[in-house]
Amino acid sequence: MSDEIKARFPGEVDEVHPAPFITIPPQPTEKKPGQLTEAQVTQFFQEGYVAVNDFFDTKTELDPCRDAISVMVDQLADKLYDAGKIEDKYEDYGLFQRLTQLEKEHAGSNILLFKSQKMPKAFCDVWSNDRMLNVMEQLLGPDIAGHPVWNLRTKTPKSDAVSIPWHQDSAYFSNESYDHMIVTAWVPFLDAIPGNGCMQVVKNGHRKGKVANHTCCRGPTWYVMLEEEEMEKSLDVDMKKDLETCPIDYGGFLLFHNLTPHRSLENMSNDIRWSCDFRWQSPSEHWGFYGLGEGVPMRSAKDPSMKADFEKFFSFDRKEQWQKRYYRQEDANDPFDTTITGPWIGRWEIVNHNKHTEAFKPFIVTTSRRTTSYIYDIVVYTVSKNHSAYSACTVCDTSSYTTILLLLSHHFLSTYLPELLLPRASMPQTKWRPRWR
Length: 437
Ligand SMILES: O=C(O)CCC(=O)C(=O)O
Description:
Blueprint: H1 19-22, H2 38-47, E1 49-52, H3 58-82, H4 98-105, H5 109-115, H6 121-127, H7 130-140, E2 144-146, E3 151-155, E4 183-188, E5 199-202, E6 215-216, E7 224-225, H8 228-234, H9 239-242, E8 243-246, E9 253-257, E10 262-264, E11 273-281, E12 296-299, H10 310-315, H11 318-326, H12 329-332, E13 349-350, H13 355-359, H14 371-384, H15 398-407, H16 410-424
Parallel strand pairs: 6-13
Antiparallel strand pairs: 1-9, 2-11, 2-12, 3-11, 4-9, 4-11, 5-8, 5-10, 6-7
Bound molecules: 2-oxoglutaric acid.
């Protein structure tokens, strides 16, 4: 028998948890507005996705989101103009063109808007929409919370920065997200079609209950990637049969979850494909969000009068925490910096280095029970910076670092641990020095 030890990254696991993803929970006995049909609920659990059409009243529920996006674009134009980054604010352009014009004059404008997100009230209203929560009740049970990860997608035409490859959402979350469902409603603010970058899913990709091995990062971006070959091998899907393209008209949404492999197509149109992905889960489950704040409870079986407390939810500055923990400070303080980095970068093999992977600064939590895995993140990250020494990962045995943890203080760990490990792992000389020193 071979003694070969396989190098593993923190995101890689053998564990599988199919039950929560394929088992329909007890359905509400009461008929409620907006509820999915039995066939839709069945499809969601069997195939890992379902398209829901004609759900929103576009005039009263989605047009306010469009208006809120226009305000955000306007604010961005002002900011760029005031800083002398652009010479024209392109005020005559509408919602589906203006950001493209800003992007032409100041490359990265679409990333700045993506990065600067503050959730406007119109979006909160969609997120906590009563009919939407009736849908979530069918998928998650009677206790529902909004998950803290949401994204306004600024998919400008033919832009590499917003070209999102195959992935499962759990690849971005911590391992504690692997065993329970986090539902996404992907809501487009126009008719999303293949030509303007609608979503694709790989149906049945959730049925094994597994997070497949991802790599990082696609081209010049911060996105993790899931190779089709890897999906076929570890998720038992057949890309020829299981790939589904999901056009969604304005007023509808696409439902999928954290184990559904998905991506969006290129936007080959002349319009910006605006969309927002909202998430929900049971409040009793782990958020999988690296301790960066909790979700917002929205519905409770015990307290039928519960309303989402957005004031409390937004009082915690996730962005500030995020930047403190994972960014080099010089990037975090520049309002026009288009670098995006985060904990997911330390979770997978970095096969393509770029400014986003370079900016990643691993974060250590000495007080949490997950500490050992954070240390492991750093070791793997450190070693993977030098590909010729990649096999040195095999010496990184998580349990042996538990002892170090007990003996060393947080300061000592974050300052000296990588240096101590490098010679031990017989790393060849490298010019790279840890960023967090
Ligand atoms: O909107 C997109 O282009 C991709 C969305 C996505 O990957 C997600 O919602 O997880």
